[in-house]
Amino acid sequence: MLDMAYQQMQAPILKQEALAAHIFRIVLHCPSLAATAVPGQFVHILPLGFTLRRPISICEINKENGTLTIIFEVKGNGTQKIASLRPGETMDVLGPLGHGFTILPEAKHVVLVGGGIGNPPMLTLAQYYGERATAICGYRTAGIVTLQKEFQESGANPILCTDDGTAGRHALVTEPLKEILADKKTDMVYACGPRPMLKFVAAVAKKAGVPCEVSMEERMGCGIGACLVCACELEREGKPVMGHVCKDGPVFRAEEVIW
């Protein structure tokens, strides 16, 4: 029997579209999941004909319309199967899962840092904080840049960076982050993306004395802390401990992650 904190359901698909090469957006109608979901959580999708679920971060939460939006990259047969679904079909969804970001209602300014497919989870935070947020979006190249219109519509100040300089600033996300933290009092840095990026973002925030939360990515089996596949090393109360990204995360305080 499932914990009542999350549910399993066949959620109708309202919208499916390709945003860039191998990157897709799907909008799901699941009012009971949307009602309890918070930024930073994920859903676990079971592709038809497969035995293992695929974890996908929640990109948007619309409690009024009862929808969740997910954006993901096709990396194998399972995610290809998910991407092939069309409006009117249903998706086997387990969620919302995991520990989300800490929301600071009184924050005057926060910085959101996304890398590649780590950008979609930042959109929920941008929509919450609006003009109180600066969103630094990093991508390898212009061809895979997504969500810039949505970040602008959120009211946040978006800064686009690409590794090769084909769009926005030719810079790593840590460059504008250093500038912002040196120039403006910031209450929190939130980040999601590749582990090396998170390590450097955490170091920049620590040097500036700003709290930082990171959303980690690991391979998962069950998604609820039972299979122990997604173990990660943490430091808590001065001692190394093993945590699990699906249950203890995917969001962690940066200072407790052993990089």
Summarize the entry for a quick read.
With 259 residues, this protein is α/β, with parallel strands linked by helices. It has helices at 31-36, 77-83, 120-129, 148-153, 174-183, 195-208; strands at residues 7-20, 23-29, 42-46, 54-62, 67-73, 90-97, 110-115, 133-139, 157-162, 169-170, 188-192, 212-215, 231-236, 239-244, 251-253. Helix content is 20%, strand content 37%.
Report on the architecture of this protein:
The chain has 259 residues and is of the alpha/beta class. The protein folds into 2 domains: 7-97, Elongation Factor Tu (Ef-tu), domain 3; 110-256, 3-Layer(aba) Sandwich (Rossmann fold). It has 6 helices and 15 strands. The protein has helices at residues 31-36, 77-83, 120-129, 148-153, 174-183, 195-208; strands at 7-20, 23-29, 42-46, 54-62, 67-73, 90-97, 110-115, 133-139, 157-162, 169-170, 188-192, 212-215, 231-236, 239-244, 251-253. A 7-stranded mixed β-sheet has the order 10-9-8-7-11-12-15, sandwiched between helices. A 6-stranded antiparallel beta barrel has the order 1-2-5-4-3-6. Strands 13-14 form a two-stranded antiparallel ribbon. A hairpin with a 4-residue loop joins strand 4 (54-62) and strand 5 (67-73). Helix 5 (174-183) packs parallel to helix 6. The longest helix is centred in the last third of the chain and has 14 residues, at 195-208.
